[in-house]
Amino acid sequence: MSLSEELGRLGALHERGVLSDEEFARAKARVLGGNPDVTSPALLAINALRRSRDDRWLGGVCGGIARVTGVESWIWRLLFALLALCAGTGLLVYLLMWVLIPADPLIPGHAPGHPQAG
User: 79 vs 33, 73, 88, CA distance in Å?
Assistant: First the structure.
């Protein structure tokens, strides 16, 4: 689809009232190559996801997800264990997340897994 066709469709949706002025402006900016909206809470949470160095049993994936979602890490561990019973799906997802999600940065003078003295 060409750029003019895409803009024409967006304009038609805006005229019919399907898109608000703000939604139309964001969609038009995206089509024209502007920066996407990276302030949505979901995108901010995904970008903040890091493997935990403090709350970990294996790779820190569940501790990192717990920090971002606000759900206890033991619940995430249980969910991954249950998914592992489904043809190994939980294990595969966990391993992929372990490889693809970066770890928390190291804090100088702080040993991972131990409370900081002071």
Answer: 39, 10, 12
Apex 92 CA angle, 38 and 107, nearest 5? 55
Provide the whole-model pTM.
0.56
Measured distance CA(5)–CA(9) in Å, rounded: 6
Averaged over successive runs of 10 residues, the pLDDT of the chain (118 residues) comes to: 80 83 83 66 72 84 88 92 89 88 74 52
User: Whole-angstrom Cα distance, residue 55 to residue 48?
Assistant: 16
Residue 29 parent element (H or E): helix 21-31
